[in-house]
Design a protein that fits this description.
twelve-stranded mixed sheet; 15 helices; 12 strands
Length: 416
């Protein structure tokens, strides 16, 4: 078995280089890394290209599309290049904002080798910004391998239960996919993932073609750099930054026209659009109609992420016109801390410590002695680097993962 790992990147060389280094440091399996650089900045292009050349590693390949492409077109082009250039049996799309934990790729490869005809998804930790801090988000994991039916993904999607699927949703960027599966999807739908969003486009195309996939309930990677996340920009309805660049490349084409409320960039409407596109092809027998009330409730949950009051009011007006009636979900507002704690927090940040004593002790124990506290999830740190250091050194302890239950998983034999 061999994995071709495709890293599509655009205008963020620091992240791309860190992703490459984390992959080249992996061992215990056969893989190659294909970096596809869609950058508009010549300086960024030079940085990534020269780094790949200087690495002098036969596992590392640098490619560049002939012209600037939108995100989905770029992913699709890069995967097609990988299919033609590589003799790999499995393929993976890899965010440039993703770092692998040491020796984690071999676990995923072992699952793929044990079940070579199945897609295998995996879990991730996050270093998520919550100004002025960063939150260490750690996925609850059981350490087991599960089989999940794609019919359950379709069923939950039709009921607008997107959040319930979060921990094992088969996105293109959180799995390894056998070559034969990619080719079947491409042959049936005309491309691998060209659409509004490549991740979910592949999800529903795959679910229309295959009956099962596997979920490796290990947290293998860390996600960070969320200021460059198109998804975060979409949820916040931002016109600048990465999502502004995403929409600029998208141009004047119809946007989310297959969603029940066409064109509305709110909540998970982009996923419902991709569901609707596949439904048009395979029919309502395989992809049932989306339940209207549940759909509106799910969209309304996205209001909490929009910081602009005028934009939020307009989004609310639209879903109310379509029949939504309910209380607007409130965004989390932290309780104000006493003045002395705020001053201590500022002093701690100035000297590079965690502003909260519990977190500072936890990081110190992890750094010096490799000791991790029993209650891990949700710790906050003053910097992204400290958050990632903590995530690397303190993997969440294995436990029964209740958050997988909506997927109705069935455990399958697996050992490394």
């Amino acid at each position: 078995m061999k994995i071709a790992i495709v890293i599509p990147t655009r205008n963020r060389p620091r992240y791309a280089l860190a992703a490459i280094e984390s992959l080249l440091g992996q061992g215990g399996c056969a893989f190659e890394v294909i970096v596809s650089d869609n950058s508009s900045s010549e300086a960024d292009v030079r940085t990534v290209a020269e780094f790949c050349r200087a690495a002098n590693d036969p596992r590392l390949i640098y490619i560049r599309p002939p012209e600037e492409l939108d995100m989905a077109a770029h992913w699709d082009w890069a995967l097609e290049q990988a299919l033609s250039r590589s003799d790999a049996t499995h393929f993976m799309i890899h965010y440039d904002r993703k770092i692998w934990k040491p020796q984690s790729l071999r676990l995923l490869a072992a699952a793929g080798e044990r079940y070579p005809e199945r897609i295998v998804t995996y879990a991730a930790d996050t270093a998520f910004p919550a100004p002025p801090f960063f939150v260490a988000g750690q996925s609850p994991v059981s350490g087991k391998l599960y089989e999940i039916r794609t019919a359950q993904v379709v069923r939950l999607s039709s009921r607008a239960m997107i959040r319930e699927m979060t921990y094992a949703f088969p996105l293109l960027s959180n799995c390894i996919t056998p070559r034969a599966v990619i080719e079947r999807v491409r042959d049936r739908f005309g491309s691998i993932c060209r659409s509004s969003t490549p991740d979910a486009a592949f999800t529903y195309r795959f679910c229309a073609m295959e009956e099962r996939y596997l979920h490796l309930d290990h947290s293998l990677v860390m996600m960070y750099g969320f200021q460059y996340s198109n998804a975060v920009g979409y949820f916040r309805v931002e016109t600048g930054g990465s999502f502004g660049d995403f929409m600029k490349l998208w141009g004047c084409r119809p946007w989310l026209d297959a969603a029940p409320i066409p064109g509305l960039g709110l909540g998970h409407n982009v996923l419902f659009h991709e569901y609707g596109l596949v439904q048009r092809i395979v029919g309502e027998g395989l992809f049932p109609l989306i339940e209207r009330d549940a759909y509106l409730r799910e969209l309304a949950s996205g209001l909490a992420f929009i910081p602009d009051p005028a934009v939020k009011a307009e989004m609310r007006r639209v879903i109310e016109e379509h029949g939504w009636r309910g209380e607007e979900p409130s965004a989390y507002v932290p309780r104000p801390r006493p003045l002395y704690r705020r001053l201590l927090g500022k002093a701690a940040r100035l000297v590079g410590l965690s502003p909260r004593p519990r977190q500072a002790v936890a990081l110190l124990l992890a750094d010096r002695f490799g000791i991790c506290p029993p209650d891990l999830d949700g710790y906050v740190f003053p910097t992204e680097e400290m958050t990632m250091r903590y995530l690397l050194q303190c993997p969440r302890r294995l436990q029964h993962n209740e958050l997988l239950e909506p997927m109705q998983p069935a455990e399958v034999p697996f050992s490394v």
